[in-house]
UniProtKB/TrEMBL annotation:
Name of the protein: Unannotated protein
InterPro entries per UniProt: 6-hairpin_glycosidase_sf, 6hp_glycosidase-like_sf, Ssp411
Natural source organism: freshwater metagenome
Gene Ontology terms describing biological process: carbohydrate metabolic process
Length: 370
């Protein structure tokens, strides 16, 4: 799904050769043709491929329900199936880049890359973020986001609320993973634009900006769907930004906006997931971790990863290189313990005793995650 410019394309078609799912689905006979009888029958059982099919047209989608006992055999089978699938007609791709969807991808890749020690995932998140900065932000000679681009050229469309909320969320995760202040600054700028141009004056948000082309009725909906609503995405990003900066006005905005989550959850809980996540973060604090160390110190990396693994709703992490100043309030007046990588676990900027121990940090984080 990666475009040549480094961002992520919108979608793949469901069909290839006029048949839905044909590129991905298999029959037992097709597995045997590719793998031979012995491996084919083994793969049929392992991947839940049946004679009648689990999908359509007698075909099955491959489902790895249990971990294979014979991992070398599985790797051989998997490689052979991947090579065979590569020869099939691929589904078409919608290669336009949507700002909001890339914001969500940036957040997911950056966080997962940090948690699973996969630097390539973080690099992919950074590449997508760089494309948004280079092409989407200020595309129309202002400080605003455009919604879509293609082939590295901005579309003639204005960003809507979910673009601002989701891209801000992605940038906030990049800040927490990389420690680069620019992502925090950019996220704050996007949130300020969202608040200025999308606020409805009643604690919520419109989906379109106040200077967008006029519509019969200006849309306004907090409901989550396949992606977080712009309303709840912006509110959640405000919570994170407030937790990192100590700027209470953003928390107040989030509290007002998330009032809609209760009403929506009672009426249609499936449409309130991101709003309820934000409400949980507000109730939890959220938890704040401040990390001081050097990039080359493996202990600092371990402490950082432990902080990022917190399951406390909405937990945030700020990172500073030892000996350097930071403009981030959460990192101010947090000296390291001598020359050791050091972590502070805080709520409302009130911190527990600093620690250089991974075991102690895990305990502190866990004690605030109930």
């Amino acid at each position: 799904m990666t475009t040549p410019e480094g961002a992520f394309a919108s979608a793949l078609d469901a069909d290839s050769e006029g048949v839905e799912g044909l590129f991905y689905a298999w029959s037992p006979q097709q597995l045997i043709e590719v793998l031979g009888v012995e491996d084919g029958e083994w793969a049929t059982g392992l991947l839940a491929v049946t004679e009648s099919g689990t999908f359509e047209h007698g075909l099955s989608t491959l489902q790895l329900i249990d971990e294979p006992e014979d991992l070398p055999r599985w790797e051989r089978v998997r490689s052979a199936l991947l090579a065979a699938r590569a020869k099939r007609v691929r589904p078409g791709r919608d290669d336009k880049v949507v700002a909001a969807w890339n914001g969500l991808a940036i957040a997911a890749l950056a966080e997962a890359g940090a948690l699973f020690a996969e630097p390539e995932w973080i690099e992919a998140a950074l590449a997508a973020a760089d494309l948004l900065l280079a092409v989407h932000l200020g595309a129309h000679d202002d400080d605003r986001l455009c919604r879509t681009s293609r082939d590295g050229r901005a579309g003639n469309n204005n960003g809507v609320l979910d673009d601002y909320g989701s891209v801000a969320e992605g940038f906030l995760v990049l800040y927490q993973v990389t420690g680069a202040d620019e992502w925090l600054v950019l996220a704050g700028m996007l949130l300020d634009i969202a608040i200025q141009h999308f606020a409805d004056g009643d604690g919520g948000f419109f989906d379109t900006a106040d200077d967008a082309p006029s519509l019969v009725r200006r849309p306004r909906d907090a409901s989550d769907n396949a992606e977080p609503s712009g309303w709840f995405a912006t509110a959640n990003a405000c919570i994170t930004f407030a937790a990192l900066t100590g700027l209470g006005e953003y928390r107040a905005i989030a509290e007002c906006a998330l009032g809609a989550a209760k009403v929506l959850a009672l009426r249609s809980p499936r449409a309130a997931g991101w709003g309820l996540a934000g409400a949980s973060a507000l109730l939890a604090g959220p938890l704040e971790s401040a990390m001081i160390g050097t990039p080359s110190d493996p202990t600092a990396a371990t402490l950082h990863q432990i902080a990022l693994m917190s399951v406390s709703p909405g937990a945030v992490t700020a990172l500073r290189v030892a000996g350097e100043l930071s403009s981030v309030p959460l990192l101010r007046e947090r000296p390291p313990l001598g020359e050791l990588a050091t972590a502070y676990v805080c709520l409302g900027f009130t911190c527990q005793r600093p620690t250089a121990s991974a075991v102690e940090l895990a305990k502190q984080v866990a004690s605030n995650s109930d």
